[in-house]
Write a structure and sequence with these properties.
Blueprint: H1 2-15, H2 21-27, E1 29-34, E2 37-38, E3 42-44, E4 51-52, H3 54-66, E5 69-74, H4 80-85, E6 91-92, H5 100-103, E7 107-122, E8 136-140, H6 144-152, E9 157-161, H7 164-172, E10 178-182, H8 183-191, H9 195-198, E11 201-203, E12 209-217, H10 222-237, H11 240-249
Parallel strand pairs: 1-5, 1-6, 8-9, 8-10
Antiparallel strand pairs: 2-3, 3-4, 7-10, 7-11, 7-12
Helix pairs in contact: 3-10, 3-11
Length: 270
């Protein structure tokens, strides 16, 4: 019995996740929760089976500055907070919007991307916010967009999906009137539609509100939070952050934006 207890204790110690910066650096790696189907932020290349995207490059940049190897763990939208709280990952870099409600459950880094919620639908279907009333909209489960719609547009009917490919299928099949989410994600979703359908859809000109993406951490890990913030600020200072933006949102990218209207600091996104 005594030998069994010792073995169990050793196994438990081996499986206890690193939580402090010092422990992570001693271990030499950091587990990062990311999405596999959220281009241009993160996506699995079907040929190389390598994750690529804006979030992925930021995760790699942070890990490099923390002097640890990034170990990517695929997660769904609704799993983002729980994987942190259950010690399954050390960071979440998965187009995670910082909100008042989420602040109660996990800690956040400074923001590293600013975006707006919009609607993807057939051209002319949503010319103004008034058209949302009574409409059936597809949203990602547990997304901040869903919470905004429930609060500000209670007359809209929401259908929750696990990932963006499922939303795309529902939109093409006429099961929903539109897809609601982050503007760049919706632009990428439109670009992924079959060529004969792409021109029939558009992303709304109006927005539902602004979102700031930040890296999620477990509550109370102040040393790690400080190190992550300093890493993000260094990526801004060295120009790496703007170069990543240009690759994924520049004029020659698949999802061009009008320009980078924010910068990263250890205080906030400005």
């Amino acid at each position: 019995m005594k030998a069994w207890l010792i073995a169990a204790a050793l196994l438990l110690a081996q499986n206890t996740p690193a939580t402090t910066l010092a422990e992570l650096q001693s271990k030499g790696e950091i587990r990062i929760g990311v999405k596999e189907n959220s281009p241009p932020f993160s996506q699995m290349d079907p040929k190389t089976r390598v994750l690529r995207g804006y979030d992925i490059e930021f995760a790699q940049g942070v890990a490099k500055r923390l002097k640890v190897k990034p170990v990517f763990i695929p997660i769904d939208s609704e799993e983002r907070l729980n994987t942190l709280k259950q010690n399954k990952v050390d960071l979440v870099v998965a187009d995670l919007t910082r909100t008042i409600e989420r602040d109660k459950e996990v800690d956040f880094s400074v923001g590293y991307f600013v975006t707006e919620d919009r609607i993807l639908a057939k051209k002319g279907r949503f010319r103004s916010e008034a058209a949302l009333n009574g409409a059936t909209l597809g949203v990602l489960a547990s997304s901040s967009t869903a919470k905004v719609l429930r609060k500000d547009f209670p007359a809209a009917r929401l259908v929750q999906f696990e990932d963006n490919p499922d939303i795309s299928k529902a939109l093409q099949g006429g099961m929903i009137d539109g897809a609601a989410g982050d503007g760049p994600v919706l632009a990428a979703l439109r670009n992924s539609l079959p060529a004969n359908l792409r021109s029939q859809f558009e992303v709304s000109e109006f927005s539902l509100g602004m979102n700031i993406f930040a890296i999620g951490l477990r509550k109370g890990e102040k040393d790690l939070q400080k190190a992550v913030n300093e890493a993000l600020a260094d990526m801004e200072k060295t120009g790496e952050a703007s170069a990543i933006f240009e690759r994924w949102f520049g004029l020659n990218s698949a999802t061009p934006l009008l320009g980078r209207t924010f910068s990263i600091s250890t205080r906030r996104v400005e």
